[in-house]
Amino acid sequence: KMDDDDDIPQLSSQTLAALQEFYLEQQQREGMKTSQGFNQYSIGSIEEDWQLSQFWYSDETASCLAKEAILAAGKGGRIACVSAPSVYQKLKEQDGEDFSVCILEYDRRFSVYGEEFIFYDYNHPLDLPENLLPHSFDIVIADPPYLSEECLQKTAETIKYLTKGKILLCTGAVMEQQASKHLGVKMCKFIPKHSRNLANEFRCYVNYASGLD
Fold first, then answer.
1. Among the entry's GO cellular component annotations, what is one (predicted)?
2. Domain residues for 57?
């Protein structure tokens, strides 16, 4: 019998880099279409990248979290989305609303969002631009990319640096104790859903009286 498995070509790192470059350019072209009336902020305008451990929320969940963030931030409020791009995209759809938003994200495809995009690597939690002042956001929504205490602990440093107080954390149900330990947040009744089902049960956690209960 033939062993086909051996013949599967492995992409070289150069090929992968070229592919990423191509996707980035494609993304920027997509971004340019916006001036012709396309909505660059719609969910799915940037596809999730599983290699970066990205999993988009369902439309309904993203809307619900965006609404909660707007209410929590208050009039003229500032919202930071840390590794939560689908909530950011939903917030951007609320055009003309009275709030501002930043996205801190490892995936440079989001640089199409201009000055609101801040490159973020949780391994360097406080490696942030100087103009990002401490405690300058009314609420921080964060979805750490990995279900590990190390990832949560480092992301927590970023969250605590950015927020004036309010935190909305989305992570696995298994992280309940660590979330309480590192951020003082408690699990809400609201169950976030993803556009593709994840194996791990996902939950939201807050440290203020939210509309998610």
1. cytoplasm
2. 50-206
* 10 in a structural domain: no
Burial (0-12, 13-18, 19+ Cβ within 10 Å), 116? middle
| CA pseudo-torsion sign 211, 67, 139, 98 | negative
Angle value at C-alpha 118, between 206 and 115, nearest 5 degrees: 115
Closest CA to 163 of 127, 205, 185, 135: 135
For residue 172, is it within any domain?
yes
Q: Cβ of 197: how many Cβ atoms within 10 Å?
A: 9
Tell me what the mean pLDDT of segment 76-100 comes to. Answer: 90
Place of tokens 């599983």: 50
Which pLDDT tens digit goes with each residue over 19-45?
666 666 666 655 554 444 444 544 455
Task: Let me know: does 83 contact 122? Beta carbons within 8 Å.
Answer: yes
Q: What are phi and psi of 79, to 5 degrees?
A: -120, 130
